[in-house]
Q: What sequence folds into this?
């Protein structure tokens, strides 16, 4: 019988499933384990990098680093070192195939469907290749587990994610973090267009100034930076409007400050109306970012 039965890759911050293996197990216990895996995936950000949820016949093992976690359902006979070695291999394969930007921008479940075949291949390797061929990797993981043991849960503990523990509601629990934003408004689209226009003007002027400065003086370096820093700030404002980001208010204030200081420094290269236009667009974008709220998360979103 296979030791590793099912595996998936999820995004840590919201539990969004990115890719998963195909499973052929339909027993009631296995399906119940899959259901509990969904609730556990929503709470991975609250746990350390490695952990196991032990059940009667199956175990769930997870390993996370940065914004990506790999989760597997294994038989109880599967050694912990083998499970975590498998998860670490899967993590390296996935992060080598996709960069953090692609992972962060994924908006629908199983966006990296083509990676499913890689999961199947790695799963087959660990299920059917003799452990002696993986001896060095397993010894390394065993040493790490001795030094830093994984957090141990029971499968019943995963029901806490739904506010249930042994059938009793947990009134003190907070809902899972919500990262889906409200729909973009017409004024928001206008602010994006104006912001992109300002970014393009800053980039063009900055590159033009750099190209025509063969022997760049101190003052000219300052002017080039005064164009390019607001360019980056404008692009980041667009990102903050479109996507959720922690500490949003602080980032908005910083971007606004960079744009205002950059344009004030450029007084002389730009007239007063141009400076007011750039600063006005920056204030409009900042207002749109801060007023666009998070949307209630759909209950069926998960692994």
A:
């Amino acid at each position: 019988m296979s030791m590793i039965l099912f595996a998936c890759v999820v995004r840590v911050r919201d539990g969004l499933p990115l890719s998963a293996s195909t499973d052929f197990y339909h027993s009631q216990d296995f399906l119940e384990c899959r259901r509990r895996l969904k609730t556990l995936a929503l709470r991975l950000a609250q746990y350390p990098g490695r952990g196991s949820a032990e059940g009667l016949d199956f175990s769930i093992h997870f390993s996370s680093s940065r914004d990506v976690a790999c989760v597997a359902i294994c038989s109880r006979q599967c050694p912990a070192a083998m499970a975590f070695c498998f998860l670490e291999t899967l993590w390296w394969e996935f992060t080598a195939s996709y960069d953090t930007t692609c992972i962060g921008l994924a908006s629908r479940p199983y966006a990296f469907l083509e990676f499913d075949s890689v999961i199947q291949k790695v799963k087959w390797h660990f299920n059917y290749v003799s452990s002696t061929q993986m001896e060095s990797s397993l010894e390394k993981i065993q040493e790490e587990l001795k030094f830093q043991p994984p957090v141990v849960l029971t499968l019943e503990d995963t029901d806490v994610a739904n506010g249930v523990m042994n059938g009793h509601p947990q009134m003190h629990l907070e809902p899972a973090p919500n990262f889906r934003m409200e729909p973009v408004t017409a004024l928001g689209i206008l602010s994006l267009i104006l912001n992109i226009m300002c970014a393009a003007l800053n980039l063009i002027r900055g590159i033009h100034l750099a190209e025509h400065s063969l022997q760049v003086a101190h003052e000219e370096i300052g002017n080039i930076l005064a164009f390019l820093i607001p360019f980056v700030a404008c692009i980041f404002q667009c990102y903050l409007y479109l996507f959720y980001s922690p500490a949003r208010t602080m980032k908005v204030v910083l971007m606004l400050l960079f744009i205002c200081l950059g344009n004030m420094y450029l007084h002389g290269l730009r007239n007063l109306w141009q400076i007011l236009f750039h600063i006005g667009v920056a204030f409009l974008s900042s207002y749109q970012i801060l007023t666009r709220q998070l949307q209630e998360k759909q209950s069926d979103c998960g692994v």
Q: What stands out?
A: DSSP finds nine helices and eight strands in the chain.
